[in-house]
Amino acid sequence: MGGAVLRIGLTGGIGSGKSTVARTLVACGATLVDADAISRAVTAAGGAAVKEIAAQFGGQFVTPDGAMDREMMRQLAFTDASARRRLESIVHPLVSQETIRQYGQAVGAGSACVVFDIPLLVESGRWRQQVDQVLVVDCNEATQVSRVMARNGWPREAVEKVIAGQASRAQRLSAADLCLYNDGLPLDALDLQVRRLAARFGL
Ligand code: ADP
Protein backbone atom coordinates (compact mmCIF):
# COMPACT_ATOMS: atom_id res chain seq x y z
CA MET A 1 0.00 0.00 0.00
CA GLY A 2 1.56 3.33 -1.01
CA GLY A 3 0.61 6.70 -2.42
CA ALA A 4 -0.35 10.16 -1.30
CA VAL A 5 -3.16 9.12 0.97
CA LEU A 6 -2.39 9.37 4.68
CA ARG A 7 -2.70 5.94 6.26
CA ILE A 8 -3.47 5.92 9.97
CA GLY A 9 -3.39 2.73 12.03
CA LEU A 10 -5.86 3.14 14.89
CA THR A 11 -5.61 0.88 17.87
CA GLY A 12 -6.38 0.68 21.56
CA GLY A 13 -7.36 -1.85 24.17
CA ILE A 14 -10.95 -2.94 24.64
CA GLY A 15 -13.00 -0.06 26.05
CA SER A 16 -10.31 2.53 25.32
CA GLY A 17 -12.70 4.45 23.05
CA LYS A 18 -11.21 3.31 19.76
CA SER A 19 -14.60 2.88 18.04
CA THR A 20 -15.74 6.28 19.31
CA VAL A 21 -12.59 7.90 17.88
CA ALA A 22 -13.04 6.02 14.59
CA ARG A 23 -16.61 7.30 14.28
CA THR A 24 -15.51 10.91 14.70
CA LEU A 25 -12.71 10.51 12.15
CA VAL A 26 -15.26 9.12 9.69
CA ALA A 27 -17.57 12.05 10.45
CA CYS A 28 -14.63 14.30 9.51
CA GLY A 29 -14.28 12.54 6.16
CA ALA A 30 -11.81 9.72 6.79
CA THR A 31 -12.44 6.35 5.18
CA LEU A 32 -12.52 3.55 7.72
CA VAL A 33 -11.15 0.10 6.98
CA ASP A 34 -12.24 -2.10 9.87
CA ALA A 35 -10.00 -5.16 10.17
CA ASP A 36 -12.16 -6.70 12.87
CA ALA A 37 -15.32 -6.43 10.78
CA ILE A 38 -13.48 -7.86 7.76
CA SER A 39 -12.17 -10.73 9.82
CA ARG A 40 -15.69 -11.49 11.06
CA ALA A 41 -17.04 -11.26 7.51
CA VAL A 42 -14.62 -13.78 6.02
CA THR A 43 -15.70 -16.37 8.61
CA ALA A 44 -19.42 -15.47 8.50
CA ALA A 45 -21.99 -17.31 6.37
CA GLY A 46 -20.71 -17.49 2.81
CA GLY A 47 -17.40 -15.85 3.81
CA ALA A 48 -14.25 -16.51 1.80
CA ALA A 49 -12.54 -18.50 4.59
CA VAL A 50 -15.32 -20.97 5.31
CA LYS A 51 -14.58 -23.52 2.59
CA GLU A 52 -10.92 -23.82 3.59
CA ILE A 53 -11.88 -24.03 7.28
CA ALA A 54 -14.16 -26.98 6.48
CA ALA A 55 -11.41 -28.60 4.39
CA GLN A 56 -8.74 -28.27 7.09
CA PHE A 57 -10.73 -28.66 10.29
CA GLY A 58 -13.75 -30.69 9.19
CA GLY A 59 -17.36 -29.92 8.41
CA GLN A 60 -18.26 -29.90 12.10
CA PHE A 61 -16.58 -26.49 12.36
CA VAL A 62 -19.13 -25.01 9.97
CA THR A 63 -22.70 -24.23 11.01
CA PRO A 64 -25.67 -25.31 8.83
CA ASP A 65 -25.95 -21.79 7.40
CA GLY A 66 -22.33 -21.90 6.18
CA ALA A 67 -20.50 -19.82 8.79
CA MET A 68 -17.51 -20.84 10.90
CA ASP A 69 -18.77 -22.24 14.19
CA ARG A 70 -17.22 -19.55 16.39
CA GLU A 71 -17.80 -21.29 19.70
CA MET A 72 -16.27 -24.61 18.54
CA MET A 73 -13.35 -22.83 16.96
CA ARG A 74 -12.77 -20.70 20.05
CA GLN A 75 -12.59 -23.82 22.19
CA LEU A 76 -10.18 -25.55 19.82
CA ALA A 77 -7.96 -22.50 19.31
CA PHE A 78 -7.88 -21.90 23.05
CA THR A 79 -6.43 -25.33 23.78
CA ASP A 80 -4.45 -25.98 20.59
CA ALA A 81 -1.89 -23.40 19.49
CA SER A 82 -1.14 -25.13 16.21
CA ALA A 83 -4.84 -25.11 15.31
CA ARG A 84 -4.91 -21.40 16.11
CA ARG A 85 -1.96 -20.81 13.77
CA ARG A 86 -3.60 -22.87 11.03
CA LEU A 87 -6.78 -20.83 11.37
CA GLU A 88 -4.76 -17.60 11.24
CA SER A 89 -2.96 -18.79 8.13
CA ILE A 90 -6.35 -19.16 6.45
CA VAL A 91 -7.93 -15.97 7.76
CA HIS A 92 -5.04 -13.45 7.73
CA PRO A 93 -4.27 -13.52 3.99
CA LEU A 94 -7.97 -13.07 3.21
CA VAL A 95 -8.22 -10.16 5.64
CA SER A 96 -5.11 -8.59 4.07
CA GLN A 97 -6.55 -9.00 0.60
CA GLU A 98 -9.87 -7.39 1.52
CA THR A 99 -8.11 -4.61 3.46
CA ILE A 100 -6.00 -3.79 0.40
CA ARG A 101 -9.10 -3.88 -1.80
CA GLN A 102 -10.95 -1.43 0.45
CA TYR A 103 -7.88 0.78 0.65
CA GLY A 104 -7.62 0.84 -3.15
CA GLN A 105 -11.27 1.77 -3.35
CA ALA A 106 -10.71 4.69 -0.94
CA VAL A 107 -7.72 5.89 -2.97
CA GLY A 108 -9.77 5.63 -6.14
CA ALA A 109 -12.53 7.68 -4.52
CA GLY A 110 -10.01 10.42 -3.67
CA SER A 111 -9.97 9.93 0.11
CA ALA A 112 -7.36 12.09 1.89
CA CYS A 113 -7.03 9.79 4.87
CA VAL A 114 -7.68 6.12 5.43
CA VAL A 115 -8.02 4.92 9.00
CA PHE A 116 -7.26 1.24 9.55
CA ASP A 117 -9.09 0.14 12.68
CA ILE A 118 -6.86 -2.69 13.87
CA PRO A 119 -7.54 -4.02 17.37
CA LEU A 120 -4.38 -6.17 17.33
CA LEU A 121 -2.04 -3.77 15.53
CA VAL A 122 0.57 -4.00 18.26
CA GLU A 123 0.14 -7.73 18.84
CA SER A 124 0.33 -8.80 15.21
CA GLY A 125 3.34 -6.73 14.11
CA ARG A 126 2.69 -7.11 10.39
CA TRP A 127 0.56 -3.95 10.20
CA ARG A 128 3.20 -1.43 11.23
CA GLN A 129 4.85 -1.05 7.85
CA GLN A 130 1.51 -0.69 6.10
CA VAL A 131 0.53 2.57 7.79
CA ASP A 132 2.16 6.02 8.01
CA GLN A 133 1.27 6.70 11.63
CA VAL A 134 -0.03 4.69 14.55
CA LEU A 135 -2.70 6.41 16.66
CA VAL A 136 -3.26 4.80 20.04
CA VAL A 137 -6.30 5.50 22.17
CA ASP A 138 -5.25 5.06 25.77
CA CYS A 139 -6.90 4.99 29.19
CA ASN A 140 -6.44 3.40 32.60
CA GLU A 141 -7.36 -0.26 33.03
CA ALA A 142 -9.98 0.56 35.64
CA THR A 143 -11.66 2.81 33.08
CA GLN A 144 -11.54 0.07 30.43
CA VAL A 145 -13.17 -2.33 32.87
CA SER A 146 -15.99 -0.02 33.91
CA ARG A 147 -16.75 1.07 30.32
CA VAL A 148 -16.94 -2.47 28.96
CA MET A 149 -18.98 -3.71 31.93
CA ALA A 150 -21.46 -0.92 31.16
CA ARG A 151 -21.37 -1.28 27.36
CA ASN A 152 -21.47 -5.09 27.09
CA GLY A 153 -23.08 -6.01 30.39
CA TRP A 154 -20.15 -8.34 31.09
CA PRO A 155 -18.96 -9.31 34.57
CA ARG A 156 -15.69 -7.71 35.68
CA GLU A 157 -13.72 -10.97 35.36
CA ALA A 158 -14.67 -11.34 31.69
CA VAL A 159 -13.38 -7.87 30.87
CA GLU A 160 -10.19 -8.45 32.86
CA LYS A 161 -9.58 -11.67 30.97
CA VAL A 162 -9.80 -9.92 27.60
CA ILE A 163 -7.49 -7.14 28.80
CA ALA A 164 -4.97 -9.72 30.05
CA GLY A 165 -4.93 -11.32 26.57
CA GLN A 166 -4.20 -8.04 24.81
CA ALA A 167 -0.98 -6.06 24.54
CA SER A 168 -0.15 -4.06 27.65
CA ARG A 169 -0.61 -0.31 27.77
CA ALA A 170 3.16 0.11 27.74
CA GLN A 171 3.57 -2.07 24.64
CA ARG A 172 0.84 -0.17 22.87
CA LEU A 173 2.21 3.23 23.83
CA SER A 174 5.70 2.29 22.69
CA ALA A 175 4.25 1.58 19.23
CA ALA A 176 2.37 4.90 19.11
CA ASP A 177 3.23 7.88 16.93
CA LEU A 178 0.19 9.72 18.26
CA CYS A 179 -1.76 9.14 21.44
CA LEU A 180 -5.20 10.23 22.57
CA TYR A 181 -5.51 9.93 26.32
CA ASN A 182 -9.20 9.19 26.75
CA ASP A 183 -9.65 9.17 30.49
CA GLY A 184 -11.48 11.52 32.83
CA LEU A 185 -12.57 13.47 29.81
CA PRO A 186 -16.17 14.01 28.70
CA LEU A 187 -17.18 12.67 25.29
CA ASP A 188 -17.53 16.14 23.78
CA ALA A 189 -13.96 16.99 24.82
CA LEU A 190 -12.75 13.78 23.19
CA ASP A 191 -14.70 14.69 20.09
CA LEU A 192 -12.99 18.08 19.95
CA GLN A 193 -9.54 16.52 20.32
CA VAL A 194 -10.27 14.05 17.54
CA ARG A 195 -11.48 16.85 15.28
CA ARG A 196 -8.24 18.76 15.89
CA LEU A 197 -6.29 15.66 14.97
CA ALA A 198 -8.44 15.18 11.85
CA ALA A 199 -7.50 18.68 10.73
CA ARG A 200 -3.83 17.69 11.06
CA PHE A 201 -4.60 14.65 8.89
CA GLY A 202 -5.80 16.97 6.13
CA LEU A 203 -9.49 16.35 6.78
P1 ADP B 1 -13.51 0.40 22.10
O1 ADP B 1 -13.90 0.48 20.66
O2 ADP B 1 -12.12 0.86 22.34
O3 ADP B 1 -13.81 -0.92 22.75
P2 ADP B 1 -15.69 2.28 22.56
O4 ADP B 1 -15.37 3.43 21.67
O5 ADP B 1 -16.79 1.37 22.16
O6 ADP B 1 -14.37 1.45 22.91
O7 ADP B 1 -15.96 2.88 24.02
C1 ADP B 1 -16.36 2.00 25.07
C2 ADP B 1 -17.57 2.61 25.80
O8 ADP B 1 -17.13 3.72 26.56
C3 ADP B 1 -18.63 3.12 24.85
O9 ADP B 1 -19.89 2.87 25.42
C4 ADP B 1 -18.33 4.62 24.76
O10 ADP B 1 -19.47 5.37 24.50
C5 ADP B 1 -17.78 4.91 26.15
N1 ADP B 1 -16.79 5.98 26.17
C6 ADP B 1 -15.65 6.08 25.44
N2 ADP B 1 -14.97 7.20 25.73
C7 ADP B 1 -15.68 7.85 26.67
C8 ADP B 1 -15.51 9.08 27.37
N3 ADP B 1 -14.45 9.89 27.18
N4 ADP B 1 -16.46 9.44 28.25
C9 ADP B 1 -17.53 8.65 28.47
N5 ADP B 1 -17.76 7.47 27.84
C10 ADP B 1 -16.85 7.06 26.95
Which descriptors apply to this entry?
203 residues, alpha/beta, Rossmann fold, 2 domains, five-stranded parallel β-sheet, binds adenosine-5'-diphosphate
> Strands of the biggest beta sheet: in what spatial order?
2-3-1-4-5
CATH class of the largest domain: Alpha Beta
Secondary structure class reads alpha/beta
Number of strands: 5
How would you concisely characterize the structure shown here?
The chain is of the alpha/beta class. The chain has ten helices and five strands.
Walk me through the structure:
- With about 200 residues, this protein is α/β, with parallel strands linked by helices.
- It folds into two domains: about 1-30 and about 110-203, 3-Layer(aba) Sandwich (Rossmann fold); about 35-110, no CATH class.
- About 55% of the residues lie in helices and about 15% in strands.
- It contains ten helices and five strands.
- It has helices at about 20-25, 35-45, 50-55, 70-80, 80-110, 120-125, 140-150, 155-165, 170-175, 185-200, and strands spanning about 5-10, 30-35, 115, 135-140, 180.
- The chain has a five-stranded parallel β-sheet with strand order 2-3-1-4-5, sandwiched between helices.
- Helix 2 (about 35-45) packs across helix 5 (about 80-110), helix 4 packs across helix 5 (about 80-110) and helix 7 (about 140-150) packs across helix 8.
- The chain is globular and about 50 Å long.
- About 30% of the residues are buried.
- The model has no long low-confidence stretch (mean pLDDT about 95).
- It binds adenosine-5'-diphosphate (ADP).
